[in-house]
Write a structure and sequence with these properties.
Blueprint lengths: L1 H33 L1 E10 L8 E2 L5 E2 L5 E6 L6 E7 L6 E7 L5 E5 L6 E2 L5 E6 L2 E3 L12 E5 L4 E6 L2 E7 L3 E8 L4 E7 L6 E9 L1 E5 L10 E7 L2 E4 L1 E7 L4 E6 L4 E3 L4 E7 L8 E4 L2
Parallel strand pairs: 1-12, 10-17, 13-23
Antiparallel strand pairs: 1-6, 2-3, 4-5, 4-7, 5-6, 7-11, 8-9, 9-15, 11-12, 13-18, 14-17, 14-20, 15-16, 19-22, 20-21, 21-24
């Protein structure tokens, strides 16, 4: 009978060990899951004139329903968490889940799936689009890149990455294009730079940014619009308006170098179909 005792004891020990291992795994899994907790950040824009992502009368800025941001844990796996605007848009409250053990957070507007946080605090996989939707008295929110860094679990102070170019047209257009001698759009990496964020392109670079009609619209109506571009110093540019029936292209080319500063609006003035300031008018046959 004794000869059976040892095998049975061995089997019992193995089962106990397996049970302990399974239990330990479950505890570890619960522990990992418990690190993600609900959080809400109040997000402001650096001008402190309310918050972002549309311009209102007087150039103050407000958030819009449906806005989302990427929030990265500043330690651990640096996961890209999606936070969504909740409640009254004017309050700028974004809610989601993040690590309870994180001691710092980096955030990017708008939310970008696939974006990654580097060891140096930069965020890669961010696109400043070369094609932007025209919104009257405002800009395409997909192009309004912003970045924030905080060690506060309740507050995000976003800094603008782009420069805004203001154009006003008194005639309907199919497209409005801004062309420069340097790359002004593309995909790349955001760096916070102690509150002076910038973007460095590494793919999809473009020297042209084009405004197109909003969904459901066939033309860009007469009015004021904003184009988001990467800031530059000392560059020349041209701006082209294609009229509503594609019959004419109106071009104005700068005669001097220009500066497009981060977080500033460059007003190019009013463009009229019948003024005499066009550098070129091309009639399409």
């Amino acid at each position: 009978m004794k000869k059976y005792i040892l095998p049975f004891m061995s089997i019992a020990m193995l089962m106990a060990m397996a049970s302990c291992s399974s239990s330990d795994d479950a505890v570890e899994e619960i522990k990992e899951e418990s690190k993600l907790v609900p959080m809400t950040f109040t997000a402001t824009q650096e001008s402190n004139a309310e918050t972002r992502t549309a311009l209102s009368t007087g150039n103050s800025v407000i958030w819009k329903t449906g806005d989302m941001i990427s929030v990265f844990d500043g330690n651990g796996e640096k996961v890209n968490h999606q936070f969504s605007l909740t409640g009254d848009a004017s309050l700028g409250n974004f809610s989601g889940i993040a690590s309870s053990e994180a001691t710092s957070f980096t955030a990017v507007y708008p939310y970008t799936e696939g974006a990654t946080l580097g060891e140096d605090g930069s965020v890669s996989g961010i696109t400043l689009p070369a094609e932007q939707t025209a919104y009257k008295d405002s800009f395409d929110p997909k192009a309004a890149l912003m970045m924030a860094y905080t060690e506060d679990k309740s507050q995000l102070n976003f800094k603008n990455v782009v420069s805004l170019v203001k154009v006003t047209t008194d005639f309907a257009c199919r497209k409005i294009g801004l062309s420069a001698y340097e790359d002004i759009a593309g995909t790349g990496t955001l760096s916070y730079n102690n509150g002076e964020p910038s973007i460095a392109f590494d793919s999809n670079q473009s020297k042209i940014v084009t405004l197109i009609p909003a969904d459901g619209e066939s033309v860009i109506a007469a009015g004021t619009y904003y184009i988001a571009i990467r800031p530059h110093t000392s560059i020349r540019f041209s701006i082209v308006f294609i009229n509503s029936d594609y019959s004419k292209f109106y071009t104005r080319t700068s005669t001097q170098v220009n500066t497009f500063s981060r977080s500033r609006i460059k007003n190019l003035g009013i463009f009229s179909e019948y003024d005499n300031s066009w550098s070129e008018i091309e009639t399409v046959q």
